[in-house]
Design goal:
single chain, six-stranded mixed beta sheet, Type-4 uracil-DNA glycosylase, alpha/beta, metal-binding, 9 helices
């Protein structure tokens, strides 16, 4: 199996879908390659495409704040990735074919990192990883056993939705980040 670095090099020249034609650069992911918590979003926005890093705009600032305040973690202590690695034009939703093209990259990232908890941000990552058509509003607020290694998936709203939705959405996100922290604390102390 390739390493994260080898896979990032492969992805940097990927042309599996039309998103490759409009990107500035692939936004692979970043963070601790042995992280206990992995955060999975939808796809890069304008700032992410320019910088080549996930969640660096306003959504990223909120993500960093919630990680610190509710989970007690710094960005460097988690691994952050997206479902699609290239920016959809105009920040539109990724199309099913684009998600399918990038899915092997995400699956390999998850396998190599081996997180204990996967925190999904929004509909696209949650639906993909839980293999469901249910929406985030119905799915969040719970934890789901997930993956062959016995990880737990905690779905929450996307930070962009919280920025638009105000205090109530942010309060629910905070509760989900606390849930992820509690699961990690339970995993660290054992049964």
């Amino acid at each position: 199996m390739p390493t994260l670095a080898e896979l990032a090099v492969e992805a940097s020249t990927c042309t599996r879908c039309p998103l490759s034609a409009g990107r500035t650069q692939v936004v692979w992911g970043e963070g601790d390659p042995h992280a206990r918590l992995m955060v999975v979003g939808e796809g890069p926005g304008r700032e992410e495409d320019l910088q080549g890093r996930p969640f660096v705009g306003r959504s990223g600032q909120l993500l960093d704040r919630l990680l610190a305040e509710e989970a007690g973690l710094r960005r460097e202590q988690v691994y952050i990735a997206n479902v699609v690695k290239c920016r959809p034009p105009g920040n539109r939703d990724p199309l099913p074919a684009e998600i399918a093209a990038c899915r092997p990259y995400l699956e390999t990232q998850v396998e190599l990192i081996g997180p204990e908890v996967v925190l999904t941000l929004g509909n696209f990552s949650t639906r993909l990883l839980l293999d469901t058509t249910e929406g985030i509003t119905a799915l969040r607020g719970r934890a789901y056993p997930w993956g062959p290694a016995g990880a737990v998936l905690v779905p929450t709203f996307h930070p962009a939705a919280a920025l638009r939705g105000g205090g109530e959405v942010q309060a629910r996100m905070r509760a989900d980040f606390v849930r992820a922290k509690q699961i990690l604390a339970g995993a660290a102390t054992g049964p």
